[in-house]
Each structure stands twice: as structure tokens, then as C-alpha cells.
Amino acid sequence: xSTTQSPQPDDTTRETGRVGPTxxxxxxxxxxxxxxxxxxxxAAALDIDxxxxxxxxxxxxxxxxxxxxxxxxxxxxxxxxxARQTRETREALDGTAAAVxxxxxxxxxxxxxxxxxxxxxxxxxxxxxxxxxxHRVDSQVASDSIPEQSRRAIAEVLTTGPDILQTFARAELExxxxxxxxxxxxxxxxxxxxxxxxxxxxxxxxxxxxxTSTSVDREFWNSxxxxxxxxAQREAIERGVVVQRLFLLESAExxxxxxxxxxxxxxxxxxxxxxxxxxxxxxxxxxxxxxxFILYDEGVSFEIEQDLRDVNVKTRLxxxxxxxxxxxxxxxxxxxxxxxxxxxxxxxxxxxxxxxMVDV
Length: 360
Hints:
α8 links the parallel β3 (242-249) and β4. This protein is of the alpha/beta class. The protein has a seven-stranded mixed β-sheet with strand order 1-7-6-5-2-3-4, sandwiched between helices. It is elongated and about 120 Å long. Helices cover 54% and strands 12% of the residues. α3 (130-138) runs antiparallel to α4 (148-157) and α6 (195-204) packs parallel to α7.
């Protein structure tokens, strides 16, 4: 990664439209030599001293003085440029803080189903301390939308602490702002699996959570994020959310005791479960997507994309009504064709005994 460095007093300057620019060092040296030559010539013309050594020394001193003056002038310009960059960075941070706070306010208002359109402070006060900008926003944000501790942290982390911490905080704010901007188009994505999105959406759900689960995420259920995810679903169920999970199986060979235990454990949490063997479904249901997706309140689709090795490589949030509607119809069709837990128990036993027959 290349980095941009502030220009040093002895750097080379470049002027548009000129070929072969003269290095700044040479120009300064030329000025010093020219001044020394002029001083030497004047001293010789005025016959200040018969000794050439004194005239040479006087010329050298004057030339060196000219070099020092030029260097100090360049250093002053450099400090002014650095001060300007610092001001611009501070102004950018002020704008970022204001944008984040505005986005958080809108998100909180939407989650509560309200239409509050409060005027929010913008970066018009650029150049003021970040805390002052956040304070102005705080006066217009509902007290229950953002905790006071969080509001204070946004201001303080950008102005205090080690440089690396401030840089990290700035990068996190920029990432959040980018996602907020993406969500304006009802679509956002990130690389890999985003468990934070999944958990936040589960905590935000008020009515329903409809999920499919393929063989790709079978190992996920033994991981630490899965424990937090299931706990979040349990809390959602306690506040009245309907949670349904449909296990999509590629073949009957996946109907085993391991799957049955997984389903029983989740049913104990209050999750409604079904399983469907794709190869045994009607042809019109075998067509269509088999990727994992989760529908939150029938308004947002959380989707994970896999590569050819069945590795999860991308997470998407899609809130476009037409797309969510297609996913919703797909889920209901597969759900109606699936087996409930009692049928699944019978089917697993028959598979293990070799007694199950599939009509051809």
C-alpha cells in the first residue's frame, strides 16, 4: 500500500506544462551561489579589503544565509499545509459523526414504526469539536434511541486515545456510513458471513423469522455464534415472534439421528421445524434457489452466497419488495411440502431400517 507523505522543504516541485522541472535544492543552491557571487563582486568593486580571503568569507556567509532563509520559508509553508490537512480531517470527522447519528436516528424511528422527521444537525458547523457536533445532535434525538454512553463514546473516541484507536474508530464509522448509504437502495452486502447482522436483525424482529437451512451450514449449529443466534431466537419467541426453520436436504442420506437431535433441540426452544428432501419434492419445487435465506418480519431477506466449494463468501441484505415477495412464496411452498418433527422421526427410523420406499 502506498502512502502519501507531506512535502519536505527539499522535495522536488513539479509544475504542470513544464518539461524537466528543476529540483528545489538546485534552485536554492543557485540563489545562494548567485548572492555569494554578487557579494564577492561588490566587495571587490568597492575594494573593501585587499585580502581575497575576507571577500570570499563574506560571500560564503551571505550565500549560506540565503539558503537558511529559503529553508525556513519552505518549512513554514510545510507546517501551514499540515495544519490545513488537520483542519480538513477534523471537518471530515465532524461530518461523519453527524451522518452516523442521523442514520441511527432514522433507523430507530423506522423500527418503532414512527414518522418522526426531526431536523438533525449537519456538518454546517465544520471545524467545531466533534463533541460539540454530537451535543447538538443529542438535543434533537430521542433519549431512548441511542444510549447516552454510546453518544459520548462517538465523540470521545475520535478525539482521545492512541492514534491507532482513532484510526480504527474512524474506519468503523466509515464502514457503518457506507452500509447506511447502501441500505438507501434497499440492498447491502459484505464479504464472508456477517453474524452481527443476523443477530441484530433477530433482536429487531417483531413478528416473524422464516429461515431455510441447507447442508452448507450444518456445522454452523455446533459453533459459538450459533449459540448466541439460538438464544436471540428464544428471546424473540418469548416476545411473541413466530420462528420457523426449514431444513433443506439434498438427499435422503442426510436423514439421520444427528439431524433429528438438532431438530429436537431447536423445537425445545419454541422453534417450529420442518425438513424437506429436495430430490423427493415435485419438479416445480426442485427448481429455484436452494441457498440459505432468512426473512425477518417479511420485510428483509438475509442471504448467504456460497462458492463452488460450498464456502460462504458473501452476505447480503435485500429489502426490495419484489425480491422479498419471491423469497416468501418460495419458503411457504417448501414449508407446506416438508415433514414436521413427528414425520421426520418416523422417516429417520425407516431409513435406518431400510424400510422406506420412494415411488419412482
